[in-house]
Write a structure and sequence with these properties.
Radius of gyration: 22 Å
Order of helices and strands: EEHHHH
Structural class: mainly alpha
Shape: extended
Number of strands: 2
Largest sheet: 2 strands, antiparallel
Strand order of the largest sheet: 1-2
Distance between the termini: 67 Å
Helix content: 25-40%
Length: about 160
């Protein structure tokens, strides 16, 4: 078995050496309490749907929509559910799904966002961006700005 080798070493001063950590991520700096909170959301979802259900492929827009909704509920002060942890769960799954689409592990049709986040300038994997979304192909007609809601106007 061959191991990847950066060629750089960390010397621990006692004779022990190890490949350097640069560019590998710092797992020791992850926010433990937040990860536990998100893991509870994952546990509840596994009971409700199935373990690893989310990994089968859910459109990016569903994660973005749900994540934003939960964040706004948390900002509004709603405490009927763990909205902040649910927002984080959705954003983590959005990021993971986007990465797996980019790696070719999930189909590009799951990227149904109106602005394609997979179009990147430096594309070492040669991955092709997803096709134009329905919103990009048929943009909505301009809508006049709302200036007043009449007597119910909160402003």
């Amino acid at each position: 078995m061959d191991f990847k080798d950066s060629g750089s070493r960390s010397d621990f001063g006692n004779g022990a050496v190890r490949d350097c950590q640069d560019g590998k991520g710092r797992m020791d700096l992850m926010p433990v309490r937040a990860l536990f909170a998100v893991s509870k959301i994952m546990e509840t979802g596994a009971r409700k749907y199935a373990a690893r259900n989310w990994e089968m492929g859910i459109p990016l827009s569903r994660y973005a929509d749900s994540g934003q909704r939960h964040l706004l509920k948390w900002l509004r002060g709603d405490r009927d559910e763990p909205h902040l942890a649910m927002a984080c769960w959705n954003l983590l799954c959005l990021l993971d799904t986007q990465e797996r689409i980019q790696e070719g592990l999930l189909p590009s049709c799951l990227n149904d966002l109106p602005c394609n986040p997979l179009v990147i300038a430096d594309n070492p994997l040669g991955i092709q961006p997803t096709q134009t979304s329905a919103v990009q192909a048929n943009p909505p007609a301009a809508v006049a700005p709302l200036t007043s809601m009449g007597e119910n106007d909160p402003w």
